[in-house]
Design brief:
The protein is an alpha+beta fold. It folds into two domains: 119 residues, FAD/NAD(P)-binding domain; 105 residues, no CATH class. It is built from five helices and 15 strands. It has a six-stranded mixed sheet, covered by helices on one side. Strands 8, 9, 10, 11, 12 and 13 form a six-stranded antiparallel sheet that branches. The chain has a three-stranded antiparallel sheet with strand order 4-5-6, with no helix packed on it. The radius of gyration is 19 Å and the shape is elongated. InterPro entries: FAD/NAD-bd_sf, NAD(P)-bd_dom_sf.
Length: 266
């Protein structure tokens, strides 16, 4: 089995403080509208490529030198911003770092611009394990249970737990990032023991099958409410769109909703 430690990417959004960007634009664009997409997570990348395929001029802005789609820690969440990229709304468009676009899409899940719904920010901990590539995903649902899930890298899995993955809930993204960054090795070790004990109840051979690699610390954005809303929400304020979703399987709805909001002028 390959050694995977050096290939892990922690989904914590700290990066190295630079604002990288990825261009998805060509002179052959046939649609008059242009889009600046902020956030290179799954949603940001999918929205950018979908709009580009329809003939729009698109530029994708990502804090890291590589998009999150290439990173092991990719989830449905948008990327997390530690530094601010200047965005200015002008009469005939929006400026991102001085470059004009007709519209801007914020795919950072409230880490860059405020959302138009009440949310909480949850610092979280997943654990990486090395195991057999052929091992299936095991997701236990409808209760405070656990899951073992394969990543896009063969032989690498995540262990998550409903009661033990959360590290705390916060009113602001900044508070959640601070809590994530302050997690100690002792806390990770304690959480690991609890999560392994929990999964062993359902998979008694877990520790014989998997080898612990390391943690993934991240921040999730969740809407406030009495139920777990996993739908995709796209809102528009003038020329700025915000995307918020709880599940990756709603990714195809996002760019369609953006286009419909442009068409109906709402």
């Amino acid at each position: 089995m390959p050694n995977l430690e050096k290939e892990l990417h922690n989904g914590n959004g700290n990066g190295n403080g630079i604002n990288g960007n990825t261009k998805i634009d060509e002179d052959s664009c046939i649609n008059p509208h242009s889009f600046g997409i902020i956030g290179g997570g799954w949603y940001g990348c999918h929205i950018a490529t979908s709009l580009r395929a329809l003939g729009f001029r698109v530029k994708l802005f990502e804090q890291h030198s590589d998009c999150y789609m290439k990173h092991l820690a990719t989830t449905s969440s948008g990327c997390i911003w530690a530094s601010i990229m200047p965005v200015t709304v002008v009469e005939d468009g929006v400026l991102i770092e001085g470059e004009r676009f007709d519209f801007v899409v914020d795919a950072t899940w409230g880490h860059y611009m405020d959302l138009d719904l009440e949310v909480i920010y949850e610092a979280t901990l997943l654990l990486y394990y090395e195991g057999p590539s052929e091992f299936p995903a095991v997701t236990l649902v409808d209760g405070p249970l656990a899951s073992v899930y394969p990543t896009e890298m063969p032989g690498l899995f995540t262990l998550s737990s409903v009661p033990h993955t959360p590290l705390g809930q916060f009113k602001t993204a900044a508070e959640a990032r601070a809590a994530r960054d302050d997690v100690s090795p002792a806390t990770i070790s304690a959480k690991r023991a609890l999560m392994e004990e929990q999964i062993m109840h359902y998979l008694p051979t877990f520790l014989k099958t998997f080898r612990y690699i390391g943690p993934q610390l991240a921040v999730k954005t969740k809407p406030l409410g009495a139920y777990d809303d996993r739908s995709c929400r796209v809102s528009r304020r003038g020329r700025v769109f915000s995307v918020m979703s709880g599940k990756i399987d709603t990714i195809f709805f996002a760019h369609e909703r953006i286009l419909s909001l442009i068409d109906d002028g709402s």
